[in-house]
Amino acid sequence: MAEKDSVQEGFGNSGRFMKNRIALLKFFIIIAPLWVSAKFYAGPYQHLMQNYFSCILYVMFWGIVIQMVFPKLKEKPLLAAVFLITCAIELLYWKNPGLFSAFDVSVFDKTLIGANYSLHKIPYYGVGAFAGYFVLKACRN
Asked: Which residues contact 40 (CB under 8 A, 6 or more apart)?
């Protein structure tokens, strides 16, 4: 009887693991196109959508991707690391503008990653990490 319970617990953990992965995949399916569409947005407040709202989604996007690859990572340290890395990139570009020019990622003549580095994006990265925490926490439960 005890052996049967331990086997069921193992399946229960596996089931919960798959449920978490499916939840992450659902959020990825929502966040990724939303981030790309924010970069391609061409309406009112275009500058704000393309440069700042997309920063919120960018941090959430990378948090979800890293959580999918490394599911045992905790939400706070993961998003803190993503936030600090994106801030470090902004600060490094501010000090040496030519440093990241080779790392720009463009799709259909629109730059998704790179080209618009600004220290003003740092608070938006923080908002993205804050919102991403709740997304990753919801995926874990």
From this structure: 50, 108, 110
Neighbour count for residue 108 (Cβ, 10 Å): 6
Cα separation, 69 vs 64, whole angstroms: 9
Cα 115 from Cα 59, distance rounded (Å): 17
pTM recorded for the entire structure: 0.78
Q: What is the pLDDT of residues 79-134, one digit of tens each?
A: 999 999 988 888 887 777 666 666 655 555 655 555 666 778 889 999 999 999 99
What's the chain's average pLDDT? 80
Alpha helices in the chain (DSSP H): 2-40, 46-48, 54-69, 75-95, 122-140
DSSP letter for 1, please: -
Residues 6 or more apart whose Cβ sits within 8 Å of residue 88:
none
Domain assignments of the chain as residue spans, ordered by start: 2-140
Q: Roughly how many angstroms between the first and final C-alpha of the chain, as a whole number? A: 28
